[in-house]
Design goal:
By secondary structure, this protein is mainly alpha-helical. 64% of the residues lie in helices and 4% in strands. Strands 1-2 form a two-stranded antiparallel ribbon. A two-stranded antiparallel ribbon has the order 3-4. A hairpin with a 2-residue loop joins β1 (156-158) and β2. The longest helix is centred in the last third of the chain and has 38 residues, at 349-386. It is globular. The termini are far apart.
């Protein structure tokens, strides 16, 4: 028996190619590392996720060197590189070379290098969804730990009881879990607003509803406000009717959780009511925040163009703060002993930048964020008008950016969870500068971002 000759390559049946591993997986690993517990009594500095984010940047540089292509288009380079000018000027005006170099490295990591690496490692909208689901998974884990802390009384101290949900971040970073859960909720809602993939939408919607509980138990007013703003904007962008339906479901879920099961109802009502009492009868935390805001404005008036220099707020705080400022905030619980945590930042990103970097820094950094917001909204409108798939990625990107810009009114960078801000900005940058300009995933997402 003779064997038949092999078919020519042109006539041979096509073999399906296995999809290569996504280059965004190292970024997913950065998100996953934030699930690790923070050592009790830690100072809230750089952690394993920050170290891995540096390796991600190096990995991206190696990939670009091997491909021998221009990394970013002119528009992307200008938008992402805009903060560098203000940061460099502020670093030169720092009180010491060490403070200038340290502050410059941190700001470049969060607002330039990691976002640019994430943008370049994302290939298409499937990678965006993978990254968004990693946010949801991390939020689910931290939320579960936080809910357990509330139920068992092993959380951070709040009004004399150790019930505040802080996840694995501990009382030294009480905003860490609230940030993670909020960003996960925003991603889940954006994925649930997709008009395709029924089962995926149901899972995402269920995750969004489930994350409402740990977000409430974080007792973080700033996170509540930012999440309400971001989710409301996502729903309005998806359509007014859908916004009303989803809003009714969320309201009903809140009534059942707080009213029906009595999940911390008295404390939650008091905390919610305190949002409207920030002017009439503010508590000490609000008074401290107002005092530090005034101190940051005083620094800006002293050096209006360039500020007092990177990491200069702690050194100049006492010279501009009133006697109403307390010595620090009390932290305790969640496996940590009692300690007085010093107030070393104004808890307002815009005022921190204004005080340390002046008008030059605020305009360059704020200009980058504003450009990303405009491009993200334009890309979402373009995709919705064409009826092409992928609007869920636009909802996720717009929601993440709006959440961050709102939260910056009540918080600034600092703590292990800060690296998640950098990853979120990278996802937003891809949608604003690449994904929103395409009608679908037929073309590789790097065509517009890479200089080809």
């Amino acid at each position: 028996m003779t064997l038949a000759p092999p078919l020519p390559p042109a006539l041979a049946p096509a073999r399906p190619r296995a999809r290569a591993l996504s280059p965004v997986l190292p970024v997913v690993a950065v998100v996953a590392l934030l699930a690790l517990p923070v050592s009790p009594g830690g100072e809230g500095g750089a952690g394993p996720a920050d170290a891995l984010s540096a390796l991600v940047v190096l990995f991206c540089v190696v990939r670009l060197a091997r491909a021998r292509r221009r990394p970013l288009s002119r528009t992307a380079a200008v938008v992402l590189g805009l903060p560098v000018a203000g940061l460099t000027l502020a670093a030169l005006g720092a009180s010491s070379p060490g403070a200038g170099v340290g502050g410059l490295g941190r700001y470049l990591q969060i607002f330039v290098l990691v976002p640019a690496a994430v943008l370049l490692l994302i290939r298409d909208r499937s990678d965006v969804r993978l990254l968004a689901w990693s946010f949801v998974g991390l939020a689910g884990w931290q939320g579960a730990v936080g809910a357990h802390q509330f139920v068992t009384g092993t959380g951070a101290s709040y009004q004399g009881e150790e019930i505040r949900a802080v996840g694995t971040f501990g009382p030294q970073d009480v905003m860490g879990m609230a940030t993670v859960v909020s960003l996960g909720l925003v991603c889940a809602l954006g994925l649930a607003l997709d008009r395709t993939g029924g089962r995926r939408r149901l899972v995402a919607a269920a995750c969004a509803l489930a994350l409402l509980l740990p977000l409430a138990l974080s007792f973080s007013r700033g996170a509540w406000i930012a999440t309400a703003v971001a989710c409301s904007a996502q729903l309005v962008l998806a359509g007014l009717r859908r916004a009303l339906r989803v809003g009714a479901v969320a309201l009903a879920a809140g009534v059942v959780l707080v009213g029906g099961f009595g999940v911390g109802s008295a404390m939650l009502q008091e905390r919610i009511g305190s949002i409207t009492q920030v002017a009439a009868a503010p508590d000490q935390s609000v008074t401290d925040r107002y005092t530090m805001w005034a101190a940051a404005v005083g620094m800006w008036r002293e050096q209006p163009l360039t500020g007092v220099g990177l990491k200069g707020f702690p050194e100049h705080r006492d010279a501009h703060a009133s006697l109403a400022l307390s010595a620090g905030s009390d932290t305790e619980g969640a496996g940590s002993a009692y300690r007085k945590q010093p107030l070393l930042s104004p808890h307002n990103m815009y005022l921190l930048v204004l005080g340390e970097q002046g008008l030059v820094g605020l305009l360059t950094l704020g200009g980058c964020w504003l450009a990303l917001l405009v491009c993200s909204l334009r890309g979402l409108w373009r995709v919705r008008r064409s009826g092409a798939p992928g609007a869920d990625c636009g909802y996720v990107a717009c929601g993440l950016l709006l959440w961050q810009l709102t939260d910056f009114l009540y918080a600034d960078i600092g703590g292990p969870s800060t690296v998640l801000t950098a990853v979120a900005l990278g996802l937003v940058a891809w949608w604003a500068l690449v994904g929103g300009d395409r009608s679908g995933d037929a073309r590789d997402g790097r065509e517009e971002a890479l200089g080809r």
